[in-house]
Task: inverse folding
């Protein structure tokens, strides 16, 4: 089918999405122009900043793709102090980021969940309740999620990684801690607790097909999420999946596929928040800007103290290891403008979809 008639459709099946994900040249240009148009006419061209704080790389999980997996003895483990986290939050507040994301390895112990609760209260206090807080701290039970919500977090990110259960099993250890259904259940818990709920997938995993990615898009639409962060899979030599590096798409192909995913998702879900992820930037220095040009609307500059940044390596060649938060903020605002968007400072930048969904 011609791209024109495809884009005019109001609903899309797996085959349609496969065509869109693989289109090239002029058809690709049309696809990208259309997703940008959808964003601009639905939610506008504002881009929201979230200051990303990587609070710790200590993790109980052992995901086969991740550089901070429990079994990687070479990862130097760290946990930011309360003071470091609160300083990062103050920085974000001072620089009018509007909100922050606290991301870290998964831990469920009481000392950890209580500490996060206290930190949330302190961050709210230091910002006179103005700073929005997103959490990205793995699978948690309902009680913990509710406590964190009551303490001031209002958005939560938990990627499904892939919506294909068989593929999920291939990239995770086969045990109860890494269970596809538990993860899915946890995403539903987030929705039940009233979080603006974000999920996402990795693109270009070994053994992943274009049909899988088309299904991922349909999955995201189906579970009706408010926010999505997805990016290319990037191999890490201290992980088991490194062995499969020879069967991957080239990084450039993964970047291109990532952009197609963002573009298609914007068309499927016009009013959600879509992040221009760091993994895109790892392949191309302007990868994030390219995503903003075609429909993403969120960017998450890293504001973790420089001394700890090198230890939070989910994948190799992670960008921004040497750039202080102050200098990178200014540069980023400038490059966002160049992608035809406007940085919206000092606002939470909530997902418009969330309010429509909960009304
Ligand atoms: N390549 C790309 N993304 C990765 N993540 C973890 N490891 C990798 C990797 N090797 C992503 C996962 C996780 C998020 C925090 O980082 O999707 O949910």
Result:
């Amino acid at each position: 089918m011609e791209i024109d008639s495809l884009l005019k459709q109001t609903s899309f099946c797996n085959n349609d999405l496969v065509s869109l994900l693989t289109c090239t040249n002029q058809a690709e240009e049309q696809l990208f122009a259309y997703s940008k148009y959808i964003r601009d006419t639905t939610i506008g061209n504002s881009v929201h900043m979230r200051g990303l704080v990587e609070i710790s790389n200590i993790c109980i999980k052992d995901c086969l793709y991740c550089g901070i997996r429990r079994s990687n003895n070479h990862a130097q483990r760290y946990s930011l102090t309360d003071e470091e986290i609160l300083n990062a939050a103050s920085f974000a507040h001072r620089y009018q980021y509007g909100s922050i994301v606290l991301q870290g390895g998964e831990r469920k112990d009481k000392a950890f969940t209580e500490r996060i609760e206290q930190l949330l209260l302190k961050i709210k206090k230091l910002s006179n309740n103005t700073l929005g807080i997103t959490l990205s701290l793995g699978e948690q039970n309902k009680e913990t999620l509710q406590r964190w919500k009551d303490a001031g977090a209002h958005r939560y990110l938990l990627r499904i990684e892939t919506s294909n259960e068989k593929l999920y099993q291939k990239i995770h250890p086969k045990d109860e801690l890494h269970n596809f259904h538990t993860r899915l259940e946890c995403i539903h818990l987030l929705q039940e607790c009233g979080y603006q709920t974000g999920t996402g997938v990795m693109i270009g995993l070994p053994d992943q097909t274009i049909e899988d990615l088309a299904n991922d898009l349909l999955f995201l639409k189906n579970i009706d999420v408010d926010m999505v962060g997805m990016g290319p899979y990037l191999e890490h030599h201290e992980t088991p999946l490194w062995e499969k590096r020879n069967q991957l798409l080239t990084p450039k192909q993964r970047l291109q596929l990532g952009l197609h995913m963002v573009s298609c998702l914007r068309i499927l879900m016009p009013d959600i928040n879509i992040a221009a992820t760091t993994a895109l930037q790892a392949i191309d220095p302007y990868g994030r800007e390219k995503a903003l040009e075609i429909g993403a609307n969120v960017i998450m500059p890293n504001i973790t103290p420089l001394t700890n940044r090198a230890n939070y390596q989910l994948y190799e060649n992670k960008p921004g290891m040497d750039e202080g938060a102050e200098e990178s903020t200014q540069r980023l605002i400038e490059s966002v403008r160049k992608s035809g968007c406007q940085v919206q400072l000092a606002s939470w930048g909530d997902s418009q979809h969330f309010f429509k969904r909960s009304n």
In short: Residues 56 and 78 are 6 Å apart (CA to CA). The pocket of 5'-deoxyadenosine is lined by residues 65-66, 159, 161, 202, 231, 233-234, 236, 279, 314-315 (CB under 6 Å). The chain has a mean pLDDT of 96. The two ends are 37 Å apart (CA to CA).
